[in-house]
Amino acid sequence: MPKLCVIGSSHAGAIKLGWEALPEPDRSGWSADFFVAVAQRGRSLAIAGSHLVTDDEELRADFRRTSGHSEHIEPDLYQAFFIIGFDLSPTSMDKLAKRMRTWMFVEPGRSVVSQRCFEAAIEGIVRATTAVEIARMVRSLSPAPIIVMPAPQPSAEIETSAEEDEGWLKKPAMAEALFAATRRGLASLERSEGFLALNQPAETLVPGQAYTRPDFARDAVNGLGKIRPADMFHMDAKYGELVARDLAQACAAGDGTTEREPQSLTA
Amino acid sequence: MPDTPVSSPYQDLPPEAFWRTGVVEQPEGLAKLYTPRFPLDRTMRIATAGSCFAQHIGRHLKKRGYQLSDAEPAPPGLTGPTAAHFGYGIYSARYGNIYTVRQFLQLFQESEGAFTPGEIVWERDGRYFDALRPGIEPDGFDSPEEVLALRRYHLERVREAFRKVHLVVFTLGLTEAWIHRESGTVFPTAPGTIAGQYDPARYVFKNFTQQEIVSDFVALRNRIRQISRPKFLLTVSPVPLTATASGQHVLVATMQSKSVLRAAAATLCGMHADIDYFPSYEMIATPFLGENFYDANRRSVTERGVEKVMQVFFAAHGDVAPAPEAVPETAPEPDERDAVADAICEDVLLEAFGR
Question: Which of residues 54-83 of A touch B (CB under 8 A)?
């Protein structure tokens, strides 16, 4: 039975529940091991021989707990890899992009960059993420397909939330611009580094927007499967199941493609 | 009657005052080639501008840990060659190469609202360019509105770039320029080179005289001094003209242009104690020091030439420690390394028009 290695931050929690809920035939004969960690700890992963290891005690404990058997990753054991989240997430992208604006969104006190420049900057941010760095490390140890996916888009409730936000996520047009640029960055990464980018399932998004449908965020789960009721950035097991289904299809295809068309926002 | 000792105004002059000892034998090397008028140290905030050779000066200052004013830094995610590709990190704001003093003066006036360019947007193949800094977006902008929005922001940053600076380093590059007839707007490149369309009814060729350059620089200095009290360091670019529209042979036009710029620099130094001249031009462009510092195209200055010039500059300021090796954020590919070291010069594009 081919085996998938999932390496992710807290967003992998929903995927784990979704994967477990996926009917056997939909898994296309694949099994999966999950290595889930707090996003900030991902940077401590390093290569030692043919393994991915860490000297961070807490990350080792996270890995042991989430995988159920190991505190390091042995890429030789897997036929595909799925890397999700870490700082490849709308919130992390927004944190870095918050001080800049493209000309349509000019605001006092923000630097103004061209659309092309914005896209190049976002691509640069994507390329420097922990998720992509882990993907590069895996690639150096294994020729198996590597599928990379950003954390989900925030719930549409962010638009009306009381939370202050000076970045790109609260205004729909801006959130869409950041989302589209991130997808373009990932597409460029696919071309240049051979990783496969898995898009957020179209049916989980509010049509025509870069927000996740709020119903997916109601009973959001974190990496250890705990419920986060008021979370606009983590999703539930239903969301996880849709991603898991696409993921299983991508694994079965061996090239990261799914039967679904990508969301039109990237056009 | 006692013998009167032979007397000459040259008899007590130091070795560097004589061609044999100053140039041929060089017992003290080039140490005396440049005596700074004012000190330079790492606490000073330095603004840089000028023709493409100025990029080398800025790069070396940065490499050695001097504080360069950067009022328009690259956004996060844009680093190294990609940032330079978009005109970031090259000068103190994203103005690209400023080849003539009039262009610099107009830019500063525009940032103060005292000058309105007659033409800002140029088009090429459905993309739009800022005619006053066409090289900063190599693929152009999406729309004229985007050009104008980015220019508005840029002008805010230009003033900021020269605020609270202690030194302005400016490399005089060209005397030849193309001007918008109606408004007098000076462009850094000829219309039709990067974008736009040459139309003799709209644009006119201008070859600035020494007097005009001096007068423009004095006006610029006065304006900068309204927001800052910097000293000024001038250099003349040793890079020859790629092409001339003067009607002369390009070699003759180059020598005229460089001579005019050199004379203007000397005049300015003579007028103001806060203006200094660093003779990088003499070190690179003359054959007398015995080394050829030009590439095979006899135009681009070799990295060795730049290193040599900068060594003399820093040594004159008592900074003799070897420059630290810059550690790139990620190891660049070989072609990226070249891109970092090479100056970005729009005028090279004129070569495409040579038969």
Answer: none
- Which ranges of B87-229 would DSSP assign to H, the alpha helix? 101-111, 144-161, 210-224
Write down the pTM of the prediction: 0.89
- CB–CB of B150 and A123 under 8 A? no
> Which of B73, B137, B150 is opposite residue A112, by nearest beta carbon?
B150
Element (H, E) at B163: none
How far, in Å, CA of A160 to CA of A108, rounded?
23
- Most A CBs within 10 Å, among B70, B72, B82, to test the A interface: B82
User: A interface mutation test: which of B70, B72, B78, B142 has the most A CBs within 10 A?
Assistant: B78
Q: What is the residue-level pLDDT of chain B in tens, covering all 355 positions?
A: 667 777 999 999 999 999 999 999 887 788 889 999 999 999 999 999 999 888 999 999 999 999 999 999 999 999 999 999 999 999 999 999 999 999 999 999 999 999 999 999 999 999 999 999 999 999 999 999 999 999 999 999 999 999 999 999 999 999 999 999 999 999 999 999 999 999 999 999 999 999 999 999 999 999 999 999 999 999 999 999 999 999 999 999 999 999 999 999 999 999 999 999 999 999 999 999 889 999 999 999 999 999 999 999 999 999 987 777 654 444 333 333 333 346 666 666 556 556 5
Nearest by CB to residue A124, choosing from B77, B142, B152, is: B77
Is residue B83 left, alpha or beta, with left meaning phi > 0 and alpha meaning psi from -120 to 50?
Answer: alpha
